[in-house]
Amino acid sequence: MNNSPANAVEVRGLHVRRGRTEVFTSLDFDIPRGQITGLMGPSGCGKTTLMRSIVGVQKVAGGTVTVLDDPAGTAAQRRRVAYDTQAASVYGDLTIEQNLRYFARIIGAPRSDVARVIEEVGLGGQARQTVDSLSGGQESRVSLAVAMLGSPQLLVLDEPTVGLDPVLRAELWDVFRGLSGAGATIVVSSHVMDEALRCDRLILMRAGRIIADTTPQGLLTDTGQSDPDAAFLSLIERDVAGSADHRPSTRREAREEAGE
Fold this sequence. Notes:
Layout: E1 7-18, E2 21-32, E3 36-40, H1 47-55, E4 62-67, E5 70-71, E6 81-84, H2 96-107, H3 112-120, H4 136-148, E7 154-158, H5 166-181, E8 185-190, E9 201-206, E10 209-214, H6 216-223, H7 228-241, H8 251-257
Parallel strand pairs: 3-8, 3-9, 6-7, 7-8
Antiparallel strand pairs: 1-2, 1-4, 4-5, 9-10
């Protein structure tokens, strides 16, 4: 299959194994450029492993992952792809500003980027505080700010809004939308389904498989639901019911599959 310039990421036949456990056997999907793609699903479904595969830090057993027209993880992508992990990747004994200056120097980002990203993640008033003095949510925003340095073309964000209150979550989604509007491609994972409605496109996962590749409106229309949580639960129930090796007889079992 030929690579399309319209796609930021193309995954074909992705196979990932951990020990004797098959995480993925053969995943195929595309991520369009310039959009926010939500990677949704319950904890343990494979979201983080998939994101690690996209940024080229996951050992794979087979298949291909093409990112911005190059194989995932190549040197050419170091300044074009940013990855914000679930655990904040910053130094606690340095201030926010010092952390960002350090990482900007490493990736060759302009010094002016430091003030810009601090303001964009809403930490202007705390710029000279050490990271150790911040709340968990603030520390996560510092890590996000690091990922935004240098204006990468692709940002891969692993649950960036976890632990944040609704106001801060909404503010960060405004940041994501602004980045996307400026041409960046964003992949953001979450198990909070109301965030699905903020995305342009959705990839919904269960147990290492993609059970839907759709849009927010397509998800609601397909399931006949108006609530994203109910919509995803309907997909889980449908998928479980169609599984040859596991047919739960109760709605409770389906909820357990959804991680509720």
